[in-house]
Design brief:
The structure is a homodimer of 588-residue chains.
Chain A: H1 6-10, H2 13-16, H3 22-49, H4 54-59, H5 63-71, E1 79-80, H6 83-94, H7 102-124, H8 136-159, H9 168-178, H10 184-210, H11 215-223, H12 225-239, H13 267-298, H14 305-321, E2 328-329, H15 331-339, H16 346-361, H17 371-383, H18 390-397, H19 399-415, H20 417-436, E3 441-446, E4 453-455, E5 467-472, H21 481-494, E6 500-504, H22 513-528, E7 532-536, H23 540-547, H24 551-554, E8 559-560, H25 563-573, H26 581-584
Parallel strand pairs in A: 5-6, 6-7, 7-8
Antiparallel strand pairs in A: 1-2, 3-4, 3-5
Helix pairs in contact in A: 3-15, 3-16, 3-17, 5-14, 5-16, 6-7, 6-13, 7-13, 7-14, 8-9, 8-17, 8-19, 8-20, 10-11, 10-12, 10-17, 13-15, 18-19, 19-20, 21-22
């Protein structure tokens, strides 16, 4: 495949659009209808989770999809509101305004705008690699803890009581103090809806297969479970007049297309929101890219992570200007889109049309939808995110990764989503830097009758007392430069007969300026003690750079192409009669 | 040397104290006298630089030295006020209070206390490795920029005008607007004093050698230059009655021992000061450890960096409680101490006694010392810190290191010391993470007639189309896990005939949980395409951990001890007649 032009790189639609035809259109349209049906209750539910009016969820599912279709590189990613970002939006907006106020909605819109701008800027600067700072253990810990927080936050809607809190202790405390006010009618809707949705997730697909549906059709039909729950509970609410009995209903949703909205330009508000917006951007990007990569690999397609940042940035900016809140590529909806046969991002645009039609004509039907049904949808969706196997696996595999995972879970539960992510990143980075500052190195000796050199502690190898060979198993960078000095000088201090030190650099891919200064310092200090410093097996690119410095002239010893040659020549250098036979045999 | 007991580790005096005798005492006493003479003008000058009353500099040179003698591990480090920390103290204290107020002094004392506590905590937690985050290019950039800032800040004292500013543009602006008010008498003291001190630094030692002094004696005598300048300008001030002519003099310094002071416990103040205190701690620690390591290596001694943190922490706490400000091990004074023959930290304690005697009896003599003399001392001392060679060397050696260096210099000059350090650390870390996220890897083939495998792009090697061998030159960690997936899958996409992928892991020292997940994802996706994933040359410790997981059972292919064996067996696997001769020759 030829390299795309600059324009085509920033507008992927120019690539896939050229081969668009009738059969692709049909497949995309079918996928769009299925995803639309699934998205309507989900969008309402996630808006509820974000503490926003339900219609905001619909707005966030229209223009963002069109923007992603223009700028995104995944063929099948479905963009829109997702659970974790909804929770993060609630936490950030809740910190600057009270729910159900215009300020709260403005904060959510501003978050989307800030996040969109940040994503696009990161994309243009090609800084997608920063998402690497979120390791798998941190992400999975964050998702598990968020799942628990989100499910807990929805229990109040199942009970029909009020409550709040940004973290688990607060949420549980507010539930405990209000549980006496439970509305039995709300409970009578919420509990069956939850059980039904759990059954849909686990039991419906096998049942559909038993009555003869094909696996793919059964899969898709099972995803429509929430729509059935919505229809049945609306019916119940109307027939039993549940509004009279104190059951919270969705109520009037404004009919019509998304409004033109403008994010706030108040610098005080932006100062309060930029950190949460950055976290929302990074978490959203990581979630979206993981999904997009998984799906792309299944069809041997590729995505371009830096262009994905631009695509998601455009989506969020579109969301902000159409009265929505932060969006990203969601796992469940993308899989449905993929399974339903979507072939190009156009399917997303058709889905947008579907949601737009729904918000024009269907919203009156949702007037009597109980909030408890939406809460049940959320609870069932997020509990599948809670992963109880990972902690044990990590504990067995790597204590450092386990520590980062646990720190993320505990902080997220106790101090909320923002501190949770930050703690995970910081703990992961500190552990990484700690290990990077103590790289692996070994004193090596020659394996008898070969040219190989191995760790003296693990193998039965040959050494001579006046030559010390140290193999360094890492690039020399500023993180381990100080360690290198200490390590070499301590090994020399332990072996007073040493006259030659050979640093075997076969695993050294890079020597940065700090590493070079440490080598110079080591050379200087060894010279002071009458010891020569030699290098062996220096890689080509490293040697090229060393040649641009004065180091190779200052060095007391020499640079050898092979460790074997260095050892052979230097052990001979002041050979004494006590040396073993194989010097005589010419093996060294 | 036996491992010290826990108590002896935390109280190094228990080790060196046991062998203390008369000849060591004599050497230490001589060194103490010389250092005391040098320290008196320096302490006054640095207190001036910190914006504090001169006597605070003396206080900071008494108890901190005793504390370091008890807890420090360097035999010859001389602790006290230093230029860079004085500038950082002025910047931090100036942000919360106006100079010459009780609040300003309290802020300086509190900075010392916070910094002392942080250093000690870092030491007990053995977190000294965090200082590695300051790379050589960042430190040297910071020192150069600080030298320029400090010298600029002192010009006003040479001119006898007032001025201020935390950064270069502010300082230059305030100088430019006040230069018309220059006091000619101050200038007449300041310019000759500066020139004299420059000559002392460059020309005095050769002159002393010419008149027959021994090199070491000449060295030490040259360091006494500031004392001569102090004496001469005091004389001039008294004889010419310069106070009458508007020349600023040191004035009355309270006589007596340091008072008992208490740092503030006001949480608002601490909230404002903790970031500068942390930066002061890290910069101070890095400066001190570099000096201590250099001197220790000259005598084949060792220092213990984590215990150094405790020693410097104790010094700063001692400084705070005796009315001083942040201190650390200084370069110039430590070298003088070393050259003058100090053998143990006791020399520091004797110096403390010397300074205490001076603050009891000598301070009246300093009444008429012109401030311009102290400013000249500072200017001459810090201009030697400015290093104009390093930027060019870094540019030639490593563009990334040059970028971190330049960013540190520019930010320090334009935005002050705190932002300068932070920028340097962040830029250095980002560049490191960027490189760590794109490690080196290569497709390898067999060097004909050998068992060696080399990069196909650099060597003329043998490969077969259905076997793809990829050598990974880095540990697999979360920073490069996403890269690994992309790299392997893209190489496979480029070579459609591939049926076997061999990852050659000879340089993989570690696979963390994210790396493992990426290997699993690669295996999964390759399996989907009917390709087997194999590993070769997996190191022992890595293999041990992989065995604790299900990965080795799930993997489509096998784990081979050597790359050669893997390649030989897999190329044979579906050998076809078009393969070259050396298969027939049994070489693969």
């Amino acid at each position: 495949m030829a390299e795309p032009t600059l324009l085509a790189r920033y507008l992927p639609i120019l690539q896939w659009g050229r081969t668009y035809n009738g059969s692709v259109l049909t497949n995309d349209l079918v996928a769009a209808v299925i995803v639309t049906i699934m998205l309507i209750p989900q969008s309402l539910a996630y808006a509820l989770l974000a503490g926003l009016p339900p219609v905001v969820g619909l707005y966030a599912s229209i223009l963002p999809l069109v923007a992603y279709a223009l700028f995104g590189t995944s063929r099948t990613l479905a963009v829109g509101p997702v659970a974790v970002l909804s929770l993060m939006t609630a936490s950030a907006a809740g910190a600057v305004a009270a729910q159900d106020t215009a300020e709260y909605l403005e904060a959510a819109i501003t978050l989307a705008a800030l996040s969109g701008i940040m994503l696009a800027v990161l994309g243009f600067l090609r800084l997608g690699f920063l998402a690497n700072l979120l390791s798998h253990p941190v992400i999975s810990g964050f998702i598990t803890a968020s799942g628990i927080l989100i499910a807990t936050s929805q229990i109040k809607h199942i009970l029909g009581i009020s409550g709040g809190g940004d973290n688990w202790p607060e949420m549980l405390g507010s539930l405990a103090s209000n549980i006496g006010l439970t509305n039995p009618w709300t409970l009578a809707i919420g509990i069956p809806a939850t059980l039904f949705l759990f059954w849909v997730r686990g039991g419906l697909k096998p049942a559909l297969l038993r009555i003869g549906l094909k696996p793919r059709a059964a899969d898709i039909a099972a995803k429509a479970g929430p729509v059935i729950a919505v229809a049945l509970t609306i019916l119940a609410a109307v027939m039993l007049d549940l509004a009279e009995k104190g059951v919270d209903l969705v109520g009037a949703i404004p009919q019509g297309l998304p409004p033109f909205a403008t994010p706030s330009t108040d610098m005080d508000l932006i100062a309060q929101l930029w950190v949460p917006a950055l976290l929302i951007s990074v978490i959203g990007f990581v979630e979206s890219v993981s999904v997009a990569q998984t799906l792309a690999a299944k069809r041997r397609q590729r995505i371009a992570p830096d262009q994905e940042l631009i695509g998601l940035g455009a989506s969020n900016i579109a969301s902000a200007f159409s009265g929505g809140y932060p969006v990203t590529g969601g796992f469940a909806r993308s899989v449905v889109n993929f399974d339903a046969g979507a072939e190009t991002p156009a399917a997303g645009a058709y889905t947008a049309i579907g949601i737009a039609l729904a918000s024009l004509f269907l919203t009156p039907l949702l007037f009597s939808l109980p909030i408890a049904t939406l809460a049940a949808t959320i609870i069932v969706a997020v509990l599948s995110l809670v992963d109880l196997k990972t902690p044990g696996q990590l504990w067995r595999y790597s204590k450092a990764d386990f520590a980062a995972h646990l720190a993320t879970i505990v902080t997220t539960l106790l101090a909320g989503v923002e501190l949770g992510v930050i703690t995970g990143v910081v703990v992961g980075l500190l552990l990484y830097l700690w290990r990077a500052s103590r790289p692996h190195a070994a004193i090596v000796g020659r394996v008898p009758e070969t040219e190989h050199f191995r760790n003296v502690e693990r193998h039965d190898v040959f050494t001579v007392p006046h030559v010390l060979s140290i193999r360094i198993d890492e690039s020399l960078t500023y993180l381990n430069a100080r360690w290198l000095e200490e390590y070499v000088l301590e090994r020399v201090a332990d072996q007073p007969e040493v006259r030659h030190v050979i640093l075997m650099c076969s695993a050294v891919n890079e020597v940065d300026a700090s590493g070079l200064e440490s080598l110079e310092a080591i050379n200087h200090r060894l010279s002071d003690s009458g010891i020569d410093l030699h290098l062996s097996e220096v890689k080509g690119p490293v040697m090229d750079r060393l040649k641009r410095t004065e180091f190779l002239e200052k060095i007391g010893g020499r640079v050898f192409l092979s460790q074997n040659r260095a050892f052979r020549e230097l052990s001979r250098d002041n050979a004494d009669p006590s040396l073993p036979d194989d010097i005589a045999r010419g093996l060294i």
